[in-house]
Structure formats: structure tokens, C-alpha cells
Amino acid sequence: MAETLTSLTLVQPCITQSSLQTTKVEFSSLSKSVRQCSSSRFHKIEGGRRRSLVRAKALPDWPLMAVMVEHAEGQRDLITHKSIWHLSDQAIKNVYTFYIMFTVWGCCFFGSTKDPFYDSEGYRGDGGDGTGHWIYEKQEDIEESARAELWREELIEEIEQKVGGLRELEEAGKK
Amino acid sequence: MAALSPKPITPCLTLPPSTPSLQSTTLSFSTRRTASLSIPNAKKKNPWLDPFDQGDDPEMEYGQLFSDGKQDEDPRPPDNPGNPYGFLKFPQGYAVEVASLGLKIRGDVRRCCCVVSGGVYDNLLFFPAIQMIKDRYPGVQVDVLTTARGKQTYEINKNVRFADVYDVDDPFPEPAEYTDIIGQLKNRYYDMILSTKLAGIGHGAFLFMSSARDVVSYVYPNVNAAGAGLFLSETFTPATTNLAEGGYHMYREMIDWLGRPFRSVPRQALPPLKVSISRKVKEVVEAKYTSAGAVKGRYIVIHGIKSDSKASMQSKGDPDSLLPIEIWDDIASAISGLTPLFVIPHEKERENVEYVVGDDASIVFITTPGQLAALINDSAGVICTNTAAVQLANAREKPSITLFCSEDKAKVFVPNADEKKCAVISSKTGKLVDIDVEAVKTAVQIFSLPLAIA
């Protein structure tokens, strides 16, 4: 196996136009183009056999496919079409990153759908104090109403004093 | 040279002599002014606010509407019960569009914000000013912006609507807090904002950003005031950088301005300091002193025990105003027939008091001015140093003995002591610790005398 591999030749520049759709339909044209450009590049190997490897790119930087042509004298070419995924380190990292992010997001999202807190009345309720208004300054309003109450108390006291004074005056006048 | 002419004094001398207390203050004020004339801080008009403001036009004739007298208490248009339309409730011909003209012509103040710097004492002494604003502008809503300690004082003020906490003395406020409070001030659409913090350009800008119509503030009496006038429509320059040294009348410049006569409105007299105590606080405090072994009306409040607590309610103008518990014990021993009730500002003082006075001492832990006022209100009298207790006792008209570190401080903080049932005893040496305890002990008899009669 190692022997075969070492004798393979890359013929990359000839098939840059090929893409993922290099399926059986296009295969004839592909092999044709391989044949056309490979004539100068084929090695002569002992045993009268020439081999060549074509590595096609599915995406511009994504080595995807290898075509191996075994050429023997007087015979038809033996073409082996291999589809191999070669991912670069960066691409692998990207895949794993995406996988992890998706997992974490999934845990958060699907975990939170079952959270008793988010389903509770405290979080999902209408808020406010039941009057239909959102009250943000509750404490302030309590203090304010306490002071208003104080003011009213004082006023009542004053009025009572005045009334008392008036009554005394009246009584004094009657006598 | 115009600034050096004695012109600014005349309005003070033409004051109607309403009450003796006010007269004495204005006299002292005018002498202060004379003294301060040598300082190049004489008041001048701020040309930045309105370059075309030439002052009042003497030939201008104002009509009756919105120009004379004080503002109405309720600016709401009168109801028209005969109107078939629910939304047009005011009578025909009532021009809603000009209803706010009073704000411009007469200078009405519907919403006023007071930014008070300092703690309990300074805020307590600001009460008369608030009452004065209420009297001068009927129907005004007064809000207060002050420190956390100072805010507690407004528990005993009925004239205030909102009291918000913001420390104006903090030189580096948190940006979030700063912007938040500016947003709140803007949202409330104040007509007037008063500040008793000495303003520099920073504080001036802070007040200016509230978008109030009248921005009124004290400014520094030194170079720090540079640029503050750009943002302020009225400035007051105190004699010293410490406003609290002015004692009871520490806000005299501001009060003088607030009560200024305007067209047909005469000069507003300064009301006395008054506090009102709510029933709830009274109940709480009654439970407190009852558990400490005191009976209502049969105890004497002792306030001013030496402590490093923030709650001792001193004035910044009189730092030497606390006595060690040993001296208090000595004084309290002269009280007969009544229970001396020691007010401690922090629980850690309880041990000391118990150690010195004895385990059967009546001790009550009080930090807020509201509770102190309620305590004083139920007492037979007060013995205290120069803390907020003096002013509270005077406000509730309780007999009190006040110990001062010097004659000057006594005069400044309790201006007319004899009228207020307040016996003032001041130290001869200028240090409070050297106070004549025997004199205090003789003075204490004023509490027991009426009891002997009764």
C-alpha cells in the first residue's frame, strides 16, 4: 500500500473547475481531462505501469476527492475514484467549536424551558401591585404618603385647637 | 467700586421688624455683610444667563392676572359642572393656554427641589426654610435631595413630598448614580432647585442639568467658585467655607433671598423650627423607653455621650460637642425624682454606660432624629450638648439644659435661649470637657421645681 501511495502524483491544477458535483455524470469528462494533462506527468514505473493520483477540491480549500488512475500498456486505464474527507486543523476546530456552542446553547435553552422559576408567578406574573400600574418607587411612595398623613394629622390638630379656642370664646361670651 | 458701596446693606435694614428673633438675625447679618464687603465676592448679575436682561422695566404696567400677589394654591382651572362635555371641564373663556403664565410673570414655583448637604443637624436647621418656601409659594411641592443620614430627618417634616438620597458632598460619585439622579431631577420638572452645598463648577453643572428654571445655590467663598456662576441663576457667598458655623441661622443668605419682597408681596417672615411626629414613631419610641424603665413624662433625656458613631447628630460647625460618660454620670446624679435616660448612638456604648452609671441605668438606643424627637416629646426635659437634641427640644418647647464649649457657639446655635426655656451653660476654657459641672447641677433643679409645686 505504501508503495502505491508514494508513486502517486498530484495533478491538481488541471481540475480546479471541478466541484462537489463530480459524480458519475461528469466522470467521463473528468477522466478525460486527467488523461489530457497527465501525459507529461505520468511516471514510468518498473513493471510497465503508470499511476497517478488526482486530488480534487470540493470547496476551494477543502480537499475532498482523490481519483487514482492506474495505467497499464495495452489495457484500459483502471480508475479508482476515492472520496476522502481531508479536514484541516482549523476546520476541525471550527466543527468542534460549533458542536460545543450548540450543545451549550441547547443545555441553556432546553434546560430553561423546564425551570420552575421562569414558570413561576413571580417571573411570569403581571407585576406591579395589582392596580394595573407598574410601581417602581414603592418605598418613596410609602414615605411620601406617611408625610402626607403627618400633614393631615397636624392640620386636624390645628383645626381642633382653633375650634376649641372658638368654643371657649363662645362660652365666655355667653357668660 | 460699585461693589464696595454700601448699597446691598439697605434692603436688610429696611426689613419690617416682625419678630425679635428675626430682627436680631438680620442685624447680625448686616454686620457680617459689612465685614465681607472687603472680600471681592460682591454679588453681580450673571450676564451669561440672559445678556438682554436689563432688570425690571419701571414703566411696565402689569395687569392683575398672574402678576400680583402670591400664586394660587391649586392651579387647576375651576370646574364647570354645566358642561355637557366631560373633557372640557373649565368654564368658557378660561384660557388654558395662558394658565402657566404665572410661572413666567410672577415667578410661580410649583415644584421645588432642595439639595441639602450635611447630616441630621444641617437638615433639621433647613426645616424653617422649607416652611418658608411653603408659605411663600402656596401649593408648592417640596422635594429634598440629601445624604442618607440627612434623609432620616424628613420623617419629622410634614412639608416634604419626596426625600431622595444622593450624597452631594461625594467628590467622586458613581457615574451610574450621578446620571440616575440627574434623570430623576429632570423627570420631575422642577421650577426651582435650591442647593446648600457650596457649589463649584461641578456642582453648578449638576444643578443646571436638572433643567430647573431657577437654579439657586451657595457658592464657595474662594477661587473654587470659578465658573459656577455660569450655571446658576442666583448665588450666595457665605463668609466661611463651613456653612454650619453659622449655627441656627446657617442658611441666612438663602432665607433672606427666599423671603424677598416681590411686587405686592411683603417680605416673608422666617417661621420658627417646628417638627411633627407621627403616631407610629411615637408608639415605637414609647415601647423603647418603657422597656428601658422610664415612664412617660417622668424622665430626662441625656443626649451627647462621647462616641465615634455617625449617629451622634453633631453639627459640623461645632466639632467639640460630646461629653464622656463619666461627666454625664456626675451630672445625672443631681437629678432627683426623675429618671435620667441615656441615649446611646450605638449599641457598643451600652457597656460603657452600664459600667460607669450602673447596671440599673436607663439606656435607650436611638439613631434617628424622628425617634429622638418622639423621645424628647414624651420627656420632662432634656440635658444635652450641642447636638440635634437641642433644636428638637426647642422645637417641641421642652425645657432643656444645653452645654456648649464656648459662649460664641452658644449664641450662634441657640440665638435667643431665654425665650425657649433653654438654659445655656458654656465652658469658660473653650473646651467642653472643662464645663462647670456644679453649675449644671444647679441648673438641673429647674426640672424638679415644677414637680415640687405639682
From TrEMBL, chain A:
It comes from the Eukaryota. InterPro entries: PNSB4. This is Photosynthetic NDH subunit of subcomplex B 4, chloroplastic, variant 2. It comes from Salvia divinorum (Maria pastora).
Automatic annotation (TrEMBL), chain B:
Residues 1-84 are annotated as: Disordered. Residues 10-38 have a biased composition (Low complexity). It comes from the Eukaryota. SUPFAM superfamilies: UDP-Glycosyltransferase/glycogen phosphorylase. Gene3D superfamilies: Glycogen Phosphorylase B (3.40.50.2000). PANTHER family: PHOTOSYNTHETIC NDH SUBUNIT OF SUBCOMPLEX B 1, CHLOROPLASTIC. This is Photosynthetic NDH subunit of subcomplex B 1, chloroplastic. It comes from Salvia divinorum.
